[in-house]
Amino acid sequence: MELTEKEKAQNEFPGEIIDTPGGGIVVSSFDGLINWARANSLWPLTFATSCCGIEMMSTASSKYDFSRFGFEVARATPRQADVIIIAGTIVNKMGPVLKRLYDQMADPKYVIAMGACAISGGPFFYNTYSVVKGADHIIPVDVYIPGCPPRPEALLHALISLQEKIKSGLTREQIRQPKEQ
Amino acid sequence: MYSQTEIIKDTSDTEGELVINVGPQHPATHGVLHLVITLDGETIKKIEPHLGYIHRSIEKMCESLSYRQFIYVTSRMDYLSSHINNLGCAHNVEKSMQIEVPQRAKVIRVLMSELTRIASHELWLGAMAMDLGAFTPFFYAFREREMITEIMEDTCGARLTMNYIVPGGLMYDLHPDFQQKVKAFVKQFKHKVTEYEDLVTNNVIFQNRMKGVGVLSKEDAISYGCTGPVGRGSGVHCDIRKIFPYEVYDTVEFDEVLETAGDSFARYMVRVREMNQSIRIIEQLIDNIPEGDFQAKTKAVLKPPKGEFYTRVETARGEFGVYIVSEGGTTPYRIKFRSPGFSNLSALEHMAKGSKIGDLMATMGTLDLVIPDIDR
Q1: Closest CA to B332 of B57, B72, B56, B67
Q2: Residue B371 Rama label (left phi>0; alpha psi -120 to 50; beta)
């Protein structure tokens, strides 16, 4: 099967490999190399508040298996995790806890908002007094996944998008603002 | 969360005691439950569950939604048995308005409920084994669970939160492949249950960790209001499908699984054997789905008469009760859900008191808690 341009670029190592007898020489920039390494070894935090957590478990299990893409070990402690997948509703009482978990994570850290509740409150937007209308009121979010709950494929897509984002080496602010120069 | 000053105040009263927080971010609480545990060395002296970390005010929301609309919120309560939650609410509306549901819808409802029960118990098996440190059963259990979610997706259009059972019958008719896929699932699942038994049940380490841990006597189970596998593990005859049969449960043959030991292993065995009973129900019904309508003819806007109505169904966790106060309008005046997890959690302190903190995970694992169901 032929790879598309995008897939080729993904698989590409950020640098030039020059074959020499008895080994090889790699010419690359440190930034590119570090981002490449980071993107391929993201450890998610097992942070599931409600229904989306079950789909996250499905993604981790036999059929979908997100460890194929480098999300091998789900960590229970934020101090060892790189990416926090907000799987489920955040309510007012949980808000400070989420902030604290985010603060405890070591830099660089990434956030994925999984499902309608984490994006905007979703089905609990109207008529409720206790739901935070979107996790981005509390912590900055890198990738949003729509759905209630999203399919495991959608989560995989979001994780791969996050990898692309990291490999491109831009900061969150650089991506949001259109390029001027 | 407990502030620093409170913890210092608590420990200063009693010598040698340690207060630790388990959760809200903890892998063994299966969500965002927060337990404040007082320890004496390794022995648990007191457990105080703190709730509300996923309180989404569902009961209040339902008051402003019509009788057709509020069904979707209940799928997100106990999301592992969402069909049965929908069924409980649909029952209540049907009872109050005296709607006669067609036979076809009744049979399909039972089939869906039992498939959901198997899916829920499978997830519990994987998660509980993971709590105890075994990772493989998680993958084994999810392999078969994916088959059920596929069946659900074909018919209901969703993998988890189905909203398929509505007042008056069902949302849509069955997918043409439904019977064939369910039969394929039943055939595969029967082999796999023995595989689980070999891998988990007959494992000596597993048995040593489960037997005699978290014992709940029959009297205590009744006084704490434990239902479902937790109650039946202690020998309480509490299966709503047997005591107050609904839909076609009175015409199918199945056994109410009862164990008398009341420990974690008994609760484990109840769930594993319940999966076999669910398969038995599915086998009896899958070839006998009657033809006909899948929905009764109802008015576009449902207006139950003034009064109070209570119905109950058996979810994978126990008795799920729906209490609706109607003022005769288009929206309920008040809704109260009786969730099984809440009562089962209340017995946790009694079960775990005096045991070691390592055993707490075995006890909590067999309670099969779904936190949004408790907090609502």
Answers
A1: B67
A2: alpha
How much is the pLDDT for A180? 58
Residue A21 lies in a domain: no
Give me the CATH number covering residue A101: 3.40.50.12280
Q: How many domains does chain A have?
A: 1
Contact A54 B80 (CB under 8 A): yes
Residue A89, in any domain of the structure: yes
Summary mean pLDDT of chain A? 82
How high is the pLDDT of residue A41? Answer: 83
Q: Do B52 and A149 touch (CB under 8 A)?
A: no
The pLDDT, as a whole number, for residue B9 is: 54
C-alpha to C-alpha distance for A12 and A25, rounded to whole angstroms: 16
Write out chain B residues lying below 8 Å of A62, CB-based. Answer: 139-140, 142-143, 146
Nearest by CB to B56, which of A47, A62, A131? A131
Entry pTM? 0.86
pLDDT per residue over B234-253, tens digit each?
Answer: 888 888 888 888 888 888 88
Q: What is the ipTM of this complex?
A: 0.83
Query: Taking the alpha carbons of B3, B7, B8, B13 in that order, is the dihedral positive or negative?
Result: positive
Collect all residues from B whose CB is shorter than 8 A from any CB in A: 1, 24-27, 31-32, 52-57, 60-61, 63-65, 72-73, 76, 79-80, 123, 126-127, 138-140, 142-143, 145-146, 149, 159-161, 371-372
Residue B234: exposure state from Cβ atoms within 10 A (0-12, 13-18, ≥19): buried
Q: Classify residue A37: in a domain, yes or no.
A: no
Range of the domain at A128: 43-165
d(CA B140, CA B163): 28
Q: Let me know if residue A62 belongs to a domain.
A: yes
Amino acid at A110: Y
| pLDDT beneath 70: ranges in chain B | 1-15
Cβ–Cβ gap A46/B126 under 8 Å: no
Q: Which amino acid is at B331?
A: T
Check CB contact under 8 Å for A49 and B32.
Answer: yes
pLDDT, one tens digit per residue, over B277-304 is: 999 999 988 888 888 888 888 888 888 8
Q: Pick from A94, A126, A127: which is nearest to B53 by CB?
A: A94
Give mean pLDDT, residues A168-177.
Answer: 67
Domains of chain B: 4-50 (no CATH), 58-375 (1.10.645.10)
Q: What is the pLDDT of residue B323?
A: 92
Amino acid at B20: I
Contact B323, B338 (CB under 8 A): yes
pLDDT at B325: 92
Q: How do residues A86-113 score in pLDDT, each as one tens digit?
A: 888 899 988 898 898 899 888 788 899 9
